[in-house]
């Protein structure tokens, strides 16, 4: 790829990394700050309270997807990406200074909730804006490879968060971490977002947006719900194909550390190290799988993920619960994340390839955010609910069932690898929602 393409990928990915660092350190450090905002009681109950606030952030993501997706389609991808990182910096700073239960009662939890809502607003727009930007910024034959860096940067943000946790675990006492040490990553996140704000102000807009921003929608309706409704089949397709992938992803990333420590009985330090090592390998797999999709298509990878997740979720989670030590836990975690790679490496470009330029960001943002609010954001809470109810194994069947639903969608959807982003639903393409060479009644689901 050309130097200009790499520059766009770097700037887009660096901002995405900081965004997701701020988003994920909440989950990574939850076991340390759960007791700071809620009264003494059952450890699982306190984790459920913090997981509930984690899930609430996801329910704000559709709002963020709508507002910031609209901005991205009407004002440009660069404007939306700059705005998202501003919101994320503010939310991280709020968490860093939030008062504890001992100081302000449930007022501290209220500040935590407001900050998490702001994070949800930011991430709701970040996913779509960065997915659209990375997909549009790359050459057609490298879209899968380029867009895979979205999950590379997302995972890098989480790895940095876990790495920081490991460092703090080894340099601070457990009491200090529970008392005030958990605030450190949020201070770092706020500062990092401020740096990225400067980088994004100097980034270049994509050529696809500059040349075909109004294609596929009526004049003045870019980024509107009316325009999205004209592409409702594609929007429902995004929800369905996201369902299984987002549940599996959040199960084996954000929830994994807590599952290993709270259910498998591994020490917190060991559980954190397992997640850290597994995620480094996971990040390295993304470009390889993305490049493979540029050669063989998107559907084969999606189908491989769904079949693997449907068949392996129950045995993997059962064996993880009895892993007992670092190496068995790491091996099983890597197997799970290898399966998930079939979804994560290409889901950004698949969704972007379904919509015309004038509605692409909103088309990716809103349905994806809805799917994450319903399934991804609640995955950890559902898992803890099953555990608290004494039927923890039921969660693994839930993960497998969500993957099975998405498998049906992958089997019937059309291949999107070879479409022209500038012509999706645009002039000469046959109308809203069509791919190049299709007639209006040939939508992306066969």
Automatic annotation (TrEMBL):
Recorded GO MF terms: symporter activity
Top-level taxonomic group: Bacteria
SUPFAM superfamilies: MFS general substrate transporter (SSF103473)
Alphabetical keyword list: Cell membrane, Membrane, Symport, Transmembrane, Transmembrane helix, Transport
Annotated Gly residues bias: 423-434
Stretches that traverse the bilayer: 20-38, 50-68, 80-102, 180-199, 235-252, 272-289, 301-320, 326-346, 358-375, 395-413
Stretches assigned to the Major facilitator superfamily (MFS) profile domain: 8-417
Record Pfam families: MFS_1
Gene Ontology cellular component annotations, sorted alphabetically: plasma membrane
Region described as Disordered: spans on this chain: 423-446
Name of this chain's protein: Putative proline/betaine transporter
Origin species: Streptomyces gardneri
